[in-house]
Structures are given as structure tokens and as C-alpha cells.
Design brief:
The chain is built from seven helices and ten strands. It is an alpha/beta fold. β9 (190-195), α7 and β10 form a beta-alpha-beta unit. α1 packs across α2. The relative contact order is 0.18. Bound molecules: 2-amino-2-deoxy-6-O-phosphono-alpha-D-glucopyranose.
Length: 239
């Protein structure tokens, strides 16, 4: 495992975007795993800027998002689908047919999850997966207790995350979400996890230095051969 600590959020985002640029230049039809959340916003912003300068081509890039809330209307701004288009996809030359995001309004969730896994396989697997980390150590929405062998599925959010998201959802936080599983994530060829701020310091310490346990799903990443943590100084302050 590689740990890179940068002085601040800006530098953390810059470093991560630089690795993305390098990997996309190496493989034009790269398959990317994408997170939502506050942490990756700087990375998306930098990748859009690089695209606008003509230094990056997304026309062959394929993406798979990690997760989505269940039951939000398609155009609800709080959905991860809207987040991805409003912060990234609308500003680059990615083909719509190459974008995959779990459907929070699928008719048959079981079938949809199986189909999502099949699409990842059909694309020859994820080359580069970007992750954030939840305050409880979740990756995607693999909440504490998620098994190592889990795949794309519907899960119930923990009370801690419902509490975290209360403000954003005016108290009415969706109870259920779809998320790629731990195993789905672990099958990616390269994984980068980014974290910023003092609030993440304790969970980063547990993920990197604590026991490998389903109670801290991010700790499973230590079993992967190519993981890079890019942290800002505050997130790395307890290591
Ligand atoms: C979210 C998502 C994760 C994300 C995490 C951290 O709810 N399910 O994919 O990485 O929680 O979010 P943030 O970056 O806003 O701290």
C-alpha cells in the first residue's frame, strides 16, 4: 500500500487528477470506478480543466459509479446521478452510453444488480477505481458489517450515515441504497482512496493501522496489491 500525504485539499486533488490523467493517456478506453461525495469534487474540477485545455480525451473512457440512493426522482439534485452530470460528465466528451450508474429506480433491483456486475465484466473489469471513505469506514455504501465477498446489491444505511445526511435531505434520508460490493471494488486493478480533513483522521488511522475487519470496510483494501491513499495533512494527522 502506498500512502501519499499532501499539505492540503488542493494538492491532494491535484495529485489524484495527475494520476488519472496519466492512466487515461496510457489507456484511452480505460474503465474507471467513480465515487460521489464532497471529497472528489476537486479531482473532477481539475480533470474538467485539463480536458478544456485539450490535454485529455474521454471519448473512449467507460465509467461505473459506485453507488446511488434508492427512490429519489431521477432529476433530484441530491442523487449521485445528478451529482456526476453536474460536476463532471456534462463538461467532458464522454459518451453517454459509456456511463454506468446504479439505477435507484430500477423495477427489479436484484436483476439490476446482477446486470451491473455483468456490465463491469463485459467491459473487462475496472482499471482504476477512485474511492472516498465514509466517517464509519464505508467504501461506496459498503457499511460496517459488509462482507469481503459482497457484490453489487441493495443495502440499508446505518443510523450514523442517515444522521450525517439529514441536513442534505431535510430529515428524509433514503433508507436504502445500491452499492458495488467490497469484492467488486477489490477486483479493480488499481485503487486510489482520497480523504481530506481532520474529521477523517481517526477512520483513516483505523483503516490503515487497525485490524482488517468488516467493521471498517476500508481496511479490506490492505489485501489489494495496488492501493494508493492520497490524504491531506489533516486526514493523515493520526498516522
Ligand atoms: C458517501 C458515498 C461514498 C463517499 C463517502 C464519503 O455517502 N457513499 O462513496 O466516499 O460517503 O463522502 P465525503 O467525500 O462527502 O466525505
Amino acid at each position: 500500500m502506498k500512502i501519499i500525504i499532501k499539505p492540503n485539499y488542493e494538492e491532494m486533488s491535484k495529485k489524484c487528477a495527475a494520476i488519472f490523467l496519466q492512466e487515461i493517456q496510457k489507456k484511452k478506453n480505460i474503465v474507471l470506478g467513480m465515487p460521489a461525495g464532497n471529497t472528489p469534487l476537486g479531482v473532477y474540477e481539475k480533470l474538467v480543466k485539463t480536458y478544456k485545455k485539450g490535454k485529455i480525451d474521454f471519448s473512449k473512457v467507460i465509467t461505473f459509479n459506485l453507488d446511488e440512493y434508492i427512490g429519489l426522482p431521477k432529476k433530484d439534485k441530491r442523487s449521485f446521478t445528478c451529482y456526476m452530470f453536474n460536476n463532471f460528465f456534462n463538461y467532458i466528451n464522454i459518451k453517454k452510453s459509456n456511463i454506468h450508474i446504479p439505477d435507484g429506480n430500477a423495477k427489479d433491483f436484484k436483476r439490476h444488480c446482477i446486470e451491473y456486475e455483468k456490465q463491469i465484466k463485459k467491459s473487462m473489469g475496472i482499471d482504476l477505481m477512485l474511492l472516498g471513505i465514509g466517517p464509519n469506514g464505508h467504501i461506496g455504501f459498503n457499511e460496517p458489517g459488509s462482507s469481503f465477498n459482497s457484490r453489487t446489491r441493495v443495502v440499508e444505511l446505518s443510523d450514523e450515515i442517515i444522521k450525517r445526511d439529514k441536513k442534505v435531505f431535510n430529515g428524509k434520508v433514503p433508507k436504502f441504497v445500491i452499492t458495488m460490493g467490497v469484492r467488486t471494488i477489490m477486483e479493480s486493478r488499481k485503487i486510489i482512496l482520497i480523504a481530506s480533513g481532520r474529521k477523517k483522521a481517526q477512520i483513516i488511522k483505523r483503516a490503515i493501522e487497525g485490524h482488517i475487519t468488516s467493521e471498517v470496510p476500508a481496511s479490506f483494501l490492505r489485501l489489494h496489491p495496488d492501493v494508493t491513499y492520497i490524504l491531506d495533512k489533516e486526514a493523515g494527522s493520526k498516522l
